[in-house]
Amino acid sequence: MKLLFIGDIVARPGRDIVRRGLAAIVRTYAVDMVIANGENAAGGAGLTRDITNDLFKAGIDVLTSGNHIWDKREVLEFIDKTPRLLRPANYPASTPGSGSYVWTSQHGIGVGVINAMGRIFMAPLDDPFVAVANHIAHTRAAGARVLLVDFHAEATSEKLAMGWHFDGQVTAVVGTHTHVQTADERILPNGTAYVTDVGMTGPHDGIIGMDRAGVIARFVTGLPSRFEAAAGDSRLHAVLITADADTGRATGIERLSLTSSDVDAMVEEDATEAASNLS
Fold this sequence. Notes:
Purple Acid Phosphatase, chain A, domain 2, 7 helices
């Protein structure tokens, strides 16, 4: 089966390119399941109920998150009632929401999605390695045969450690958070697909999705400045993971970096093919 994991969706530009192109991308690459990190989807920080629902309607099956999950306080009102929206599993047990979810494909294959957050240069949460191990056991007991871990972390060393530690125990470990796509995708020796960071879906003319002026001002002056979502050069970053549904081992991982033009071409080709099939 094929899993599409979309890197951090940032603000309206990120939502728009997903809404516009996801159906065509799914058909083009014969995708069975779509997972995306959505913690920056509302103005660059957090998620609202409406935006969460819109992303699900666009075709995303499970949303993961990270350190910005609580930036819009209204998420506390619905995260417990929205099991397909995850928060990092290594938050304390009393924290609202869940760190994993088991999704079932149309062919009856259980796919476990686990979300965890790093601790290097991040908030001091519980041990992510222990949390992931616990959720592997939990999702397997719930029927998951294919397992994907979104490790939302800053340090490349911590992400690599997560990949190697769980090589052979999960189908994929994909990194998020830095918004910069890395070129180190590979299948580890025991069958786990790995990439340090999937990248960012949204405006690439800014600085990791934010307008350049505010970010540069903070670096140059050292003073607080307001960050606003950038505009321009929208791109969709993702990885396409191919897995053996019987063994849970990954057999392929491909990076995608799709410009707006790429997405529009897929949409047009998809519409032309649909029209041809009707005629």
